[in-house]
Amino acid sequence: MDIVIRNMRESDLDDVMEIEKDAFTTPWTREAFLMEITKNQLAKYIVAEIDETIVGYGGIWLIIDEGHITNIAVKSNYRGLGVGNALVEGLIFLCTKLDINGMTLEVRVSNTVAKNLYKKYGFVESGIRPKYYQDDNEDALIMWKKL
Ligand SMILES: CC(C)(COP(=O)(O)OP(=O)(O)OC[C@H]1O[C@@H](n2cnc3c(N)ncnc32)[C@H](O)[C@@H]1OP(=O)(O)O)[C@@H](O)C(=O)NCCC(=O)NCCS
Within 6 Å (CB) of ligand 1, which residues are found? Predict the structure, then answer.
């Protein structure tokens, strides 16, 4: 199955929002994504397509020499097929091209699938942000990867 990774465009936002609302308990708004891709010069967002269907997306803020992954999500009926891998590889590729020295992210301590995905690409656990998620006070695990 061919997975195409490309930059996110405004015309992708209906599909992105559908995935976002399904994937997260406190989804970002459409306006937030629009700001990210049109106004935030530090942000880069990518989508994954299979047969011209948007099946996932991911974003990162590039701050000086660090990349902070903001979100990664895959459409529920396309999970387990390597789309998450392709998105993480896409973000790592972007950071490598831009001479970023390290990448970081927060992930729910209970999110074993996402933690496995990041560990696979060399992210290591480096701390906890207690009660980081406001909807249920779950802790966030901080992960880092050196490039
Ligand atoms: C996390 C998420 C992006 C993974 O996407 P995916 O397309 O299913 O992932 P892939 O199929 O590419 O698998 C990548 C790796 O994730 C891990 N993984 C995937 N499915 C798994 C499962 N059911 N159980 C355990 N680990 C799993 C494995 O390490 C896998 O590596 P492998 O391909 O060598 O087996 C997806 O589950 C998702 O959108 N979840 C909801 C949103 C979310 O939690 N985002 C992360 C926020 S930090």
Answer: 23, 72-74, 79-85, 107, 111-114, 116-117, 120
